[in-house]
Amino acid sequence: MLKDSVQEALNEQVKHEFYSAHVYLAMCAWFEDQGLPGFASWMRMQYQEELGHGIRIFDFINDRDGKVIIEGVDAPPTSWDSPLAAFEAAYENEKAVSKSIDDLYDLAGKENDHATRVMLQWFITEQVEEEASTKQAVDRLKLAGNDSSALLVLDQQLGSRTSAE
Ligand code: FEO
Fold first, then answer.
1. How far is Cα 17 from Cα 64, in angstroms, rounded to an integer?
2. Is 65 left (phi over 0), alpha (psi -120 to 50) or beta?
3. Under a CB-based contact definition with an 8 Å cutoff, are residues 58 and 14 in contact?
4. Is the pLDDT of residue 119 over 80?
5. 49 CA: nearest ligand 1 atom
C-alpha cells in the first residue's frame, strides 16, 4: 500500500513523463517542418520512450494498490530558434526529470517505502543515459555550427536510431 505522499509524487512523475513526451512530439513536428527527418525520427522515438516511462510508473501505482490520477499536461512549446536550441531544451528537460526522480527517491526513503525505491533505481540509471544522449547531440550540434553539410550528416546519424530505448 502506498502512502499518500508517495502516491501523490508518483502521480506527479507520471505527469512529468507525459509532459516530456509531448515536448518531444512537438520537437518531432518542428524538425519535420525544418526538413530534418533524422532529428524528427529521433524525437519520435524519444516521445515513445517517455510514454513508456509514464506507463511504467502508472503500472507500479496500480500494482501497489494505489490510485492513478491522470491530469492534463501543459502545452509544450511549438518552435525553437535552431536545432541546437531544441536539443539544449531537451537536455535541460532531462536534467529536470533527473532531479524530480532523485527527489522522489529521497521521499520514498523518508517514508521507508523500499519497493518504490527499488522501482526508481531503474529510472535513476535510465536518466544517466537520457542526459548523456541529449548532451551528446548538443555537443555535436555545437561542433557543426553553421555548417549545413555537418548538420545533414548529424541528421542522418540521429535518424539511424532504431528503438525507443
Ligand atoms: Fe523519462 Fe527522458 O525522462
1. 19
2. left
3. yes
4. yes
5. 1
Q: C-alpha angle 57/160/45, rounded to 5°?
A: 25
Mean pLDDT of 78-103: 98
Separation between Cα atoms, residue 78 and residue 70, nearest integer Å = 23
Q: How far apart are CA 5 and CA 133, in angstroms?
A: 32
State the distance from the centre of ligand 1 to the C-alpha of 101, rounded, in angstroms.
10
Question: What percent of the chain lies above the pLDDT cut of 70?
Answer: 99
Q: Which domains does the chain possess?
A: 4-159 (1.20.1260.10)
19: Cβ contacts below 8 Å, ≥ 6 apart: 73, 74, 76
Q: How many CA atoms does the CB half-sphere of 12 hold within 13 Å? A: 11
Q: Which residues contact 121 (CB under 8 A, 6 or more apart)?
A: none
* Residue linked to cell 500500500: 1
Torsion of CA 8, 11, 15, 96, to 10 degrees: 60
What distance in angstroms lies between residue 136's CA and the mean position of ligand 1's atoms?
16
Please state the pTM of the whole predicted model: 0.95
- The answer to whether the CB of 9 falls within 8 A of the CB of 104 is yes
